[in-house]
Amino acid sequence: MPFPSSRRPWFLPILAILPAMLLLSCTALVAQVSNDSMPLDAGFGPLDPSQPSLPVPQIIQEFTAKETLFKQALDNYTWTRSVRVQTLDDDGQPNGQYYQVVDVTYDTDGHRTEHVVDAPEGMLKDIDGTNEIMMSERDFSDIEQRLPFVLTTEDAAQYDITYLGKQRVDEIETWVFAIKPKVLEKKKRYFQGRIWVDQKEHQIVVTDGKNVPDDLRPGHEDLTLPFITYRQLIDGKYWFPVYTVGEATLHFAGGTGYLSDNARLRETLKYTNYRQYHTSIRVIYQGQDITSQSGSQKQPAASGSGSQTPPSQKPQ
């Protein structure tokens, strides 16, 4: 999604996407993520390929069921999300930034809504600082829906899930699975990469990969940054996403009237202030829902985190 505006033909619309990187031109360009993107499981313990004590299909069934419950529980929470997208120069120092903080809450009708609390103006640049990069609607869609990847029982049917082995993440013993979509349906986005599942709780604690597919059509190149998301145990029951980071260099080959261009980007998200908004418990008496009569009203209630913490290897 870096867009070299200084090389843009006058008749092309100004579009650019981050972290899905989009470069528009009147000629065919080759765009790709460099090999120096973030490695999978950096800093984790060695991978033990031995089989688990439980049947693999049973593990998959149990952790996807937990993911289904977690997705439902997430509808009972509010939180704060901060997003920082930076472009980096040749020395790896930020030369541009987009920053936003939002409170994810509910309106009076119980619909989830987002309230921006901090969004200073900023500008994103390519490596040499000569071309401007802008955020698009698809960027915000990925931030809101794709980066905190949740693999429910329903969604699992769309993926090939392959057991890779056992691995220690910080103080947590996990099972590691490779995830890839079975079929790429048009106009749909999927996750491809790895997940780490807590052997004790049967819940996902780390997700590492990228959103697919990339769009490589000439004039519509659209690349996605790899990312890793760490979760933390909140309220002693579910593992909520708390930290996401992605970084890579994008290479754009030159075309007629265009020079090749590079853009290195870093994206970090933090999810904080999880608070239980309303209970999902319903009181049924003689076939009638009397929840409102029993005092279970929608009220914010502070929720603390458990003793577990995300892996210490995450970038600071």
Descriptive keywords:
mainly beta, 316 residues, two-stranded antiparallel ribbon, disordered N terminus, globular, 3 helices
What would your notes on this structure say?
The radius of gyration is 21 Å and the shape is globular. It is mostly beta strands and 316 residues long. β13 and β14 (238-252) form a beta hairpin. The two termini are 25 Å apart. It is built from 3 helices and 18 strands. Strands 2, 3, 4, 5, 8, 9, 10, 11, 13, 14, 15 and 18 form a 12-stranded antiparallel beta sheet that branches. Strands 1-12 form a two-stranded antiparallel ribbon. The chain has a two-stranded antiparallel ribbon with strand order 6-7. Residues 2-31 and 293-316 have low confidence and may be disordered.
- Strand percent estimate: 35-45%
The tally of domains stands at 1
Helix/strand/pairing category: mainly beta
**Count of DSSP helices?**
3
Main sheet makeup: 12 strands, antiparallel
Q: Give helix % range.
A: 10-25%
Annotation, overall tally of beta strands = 18
Mean pLDDT: 75
Shape: globular
Q: What are the secondary-structure elements, in order, as H or E?
A: EEHEEEEEHHEEEEEEEEEEE
Give the N-to-C terminal Cα separation: 25 Å
